[in-house]
Amino acid sequence: MKEVAIISGKGGTGKTTVTAALAELWKNKILVDCDVDAANLHLVLKPKVVSSTDFYSGYKAVLNTELCSRCGACRRVCRFEAISADFSIDDLSCTGCGACTLVCPKEAIALHSNLAGKWFISETAQGPMVHAELGIAEDNSGKLVAQIRSVAKELAKEQGCGTILIDGPPGIGCPVISAVSGVDLVLVVTEPTLSGLHDLGRILTLTQSFGIKSLVCINKYDLNPALTDEISKVCSAGDSKLIGKIPFSRSVVQGMVKAHTQDSSLLENLPAELQSKLKDLQAKVAQELAAL
Amino acid sequence: MCAAATKKHPVIAVASGKGGTGKTTFAVNLASALDGQVKYIDADVEEPNGHIFLKPEITQEHTVRVMVPEVDPKLCNGCGECRKVCNFNALIVLKKNVMLFPELCHSCGACLLVCPQKALLEGSRAVGKISMGEAGDISFVEGRLNEGEAKSPPVIKALRRFVSRDRVTIIDVAPGSSCPVIEGVRLSDFVVLVTEPTPFGLHDLVLAVGMVKRLGLPHGVVLNRADLGDKEVERYCAKEGLPVLMQIPFDPQIASLCSQGKLLVPEFPELKSEFLACYDAIQTILAGQSSKGLEQ
Q1: Based on CB atoms within 10 Å of each CB, which residue in A197, B32, B40, B209 is the most buried?
Q2: pLDDT tens string B194-207
Q3: Predicted pLDDT at B291
Q4: Which residues of chain A have pLDDT under 50?
Q5: Is B280 helix (H, G, I), strand (E, B) or coil?
Q6: What is the DSSP letter of B203?
Q7: Which residues pair with A4 in a beta bridge?
Q8: Chain A residue closest in CA terms to B199
Q9: ipTM greater than cut 0.90
Q10: Starting from the edge strand earliest in sequence, which strands make up the sheet with B57-71, in order?
Q11: Cβ distance A44 to A24 under 8 Å?
Q12: Residue A135: which residues within 8 A CB-CB, separation 6 or more?
């Protein structure tokens, strides 16, 4: 079984669109939406949830005001400014480290397990999908990503699926590292903008430092041909393979809206030219993966 | 928060829920439209892009360091108390050797508190940097996470001391609605949520609105590429009573300028006045908030 992660560095480059298209074209695979902060793949694939599981991660400090003598030892030791002058604990700042519980002379503070989100196993028209929702303002998206990837691996084994397709989060931090660590291949979807080029450089530095083979696809490539050339150069210099260029089309947004609102697939809502580009892209990614 | 001060020089965070909606485009062009003493802080430390548009001359750089425990092997007797207390599994103890996994360490200091031998000391390691400079009248500050580092909040927190009220401050925040975004927006008086009229944009806007409501921050919506997609975002805003502060149409010329890292305001005078109108709308909302605060 092999894993491919579709990532982008910069948000909004069309990563989820490309993933949704690959999902339609790829046979015998499990889908994982690892963009747990702002999961979007479900809006196109409309999964039917088969099972839903609470995700607990870390702790939050809870103060028993009856026991508290307001001595302030907890406030002095908290490095996250999570305990205010009136001894209320700010859940958003508390990391659940427990330093406050260690110093409280009255044992007035306890750590409670923190419900950080939910994860789901679902069925879609394109096959099984594992996805999640991180609670608003919750930490630990990296752990939730690791959790859903491990669920996907088990499912893939059970069902004899050859590939796990991962829709990754934007950025280069904790959730992305968690989404790409140990995968066989990443497909970076970028766009010909200076921001796209800048973030592509950062994400390729990351994947190369992890020793992961990377492929690059330029979305909306015709918006700026000069930068498209520049990206091609960055790819060949940095040992990444440019395997696809997809033109800008207003019909992609309309296709997405249609796929979301009507019972139709994304690909069938796209013009023939785009369909063939995406088919070609999928064939190349599958070929590269098979060669590993 | 001082009402009189916020009335004059607000701190405005620009967030988006979803990435790629035009958050940086809005933030840098608002900074440019305000013509004068403005501070722009790039708090999207994983992918800072503001510098591409503002082209600042960087005059100072600081390394952002976080605390990590260091073991004095002469004092450590391998008792393992530090490992037991670490809620992030950042420490292991192998025969008398304490090993730290720095990327898991949250710098909380709990291990330092419990070591009976006082064998743990406060060390530090670099996780990112802050660059400062000037882009014309705009004072520029950028936080940047080192590649391969997982935790961006310490870098964002380090930007706190650059928030001042002596000028309008615009904070460009990371996408999403989790911890890095919270760290970015909690420095502000007002949050602009930039979105696009698509199912994705709407879905992520709802999450972002949940986040700012939880923080109790006044907020409004900017609709980018307003003529692509559908009308669901506008319906949602109307239903929730969210002010739509500005609409930016999709225009290949705008897309092309953005792709080249160029500001829109100098090229499109009518857009400049719309950015200024948007700023006025924010000020009006803030003035309403602070007078409400005075009444209470």
Answers
A1: B40
A2: 999 999 999 999 99
A3: 76
A4: none
A5: helix
A6: H
A7: A165, A185
A8: A257
A9: no
A10: B57-71, B120-135, B138-145, B38-42, B168-172, B11-15, B190-195, B219-224, B244-248
A11: no
A12: A115, A116, A117
Q: DSSP label at A83? A: B
B47 with A224: Cβ contact below 8 A? no
Task: Establish if A127 touches chain B: CB-CB under 8 angstroms.
Answer: no
Where residue B26 falls (left for φ over 0; alpha for ψ -120 to 50; beta otherwise) is: alpha
Whether B290 has a pLDDT exceeding 90, the answer reads no
Over B132-177, what HEC string results? EEEECCEEEEEEEECCCCCCCHHHHHCCHHHCCCCCEEEEECCCEC
> What is d(CA A260, CA A253) in angstroms, rounded to the nearest whole number?
11
Name B83's Cβ contacts closer than 8 Å, sequence gap at least 6. Answer: B91, B92, B93, B98
Per-residue burial over A17-47, b = 16 or more CB atoms within 10 Å of its CB, e = otherwise:
bbbbbbbbbbeebbbbbbbbbbbbbbbbbeb
Q: How many CB atoms lie within 10 A of CB A196?
A: 28
In this complex, is the C-beta atom of A192 within 8 Å of any C-beta atom belonging to chain B? yes
Minimum distance, in Å, between the CA of residue B279 and any CA atom of chain A: 25
For residue A118, which phi and psi values (nearest 5 degrees)?
-140, 150
Alpha-carbon distance A158 to nearest alpha carbon in chain B (angstroms): 31
Asked whether the beta carbons of residue B24 and residue A195 sit closer than 8 angstroms, the reply is yes
Chain B residues whose CB is inside 8 A of the A80 CB are 108
Say which residue the tokens 């792709």 belong to.
B259
Distance separating the N- and C-terminal Cα atoms of chain A: 12
Q: Which residues pair with A59 in a beta bridge?
A: A113
Q: What's the pTM value of the predicted model, to 2 decimals?
A: 0.90
Judged by CB atoms closer than 8 Å, whether chains meet at B108 and A97 is answered as yes
Residue B221's pLDDT band (boundaries 50, 70, 90)? very high
Q: Is B18 on the interface with A (CB under 8 A)?
A: yes
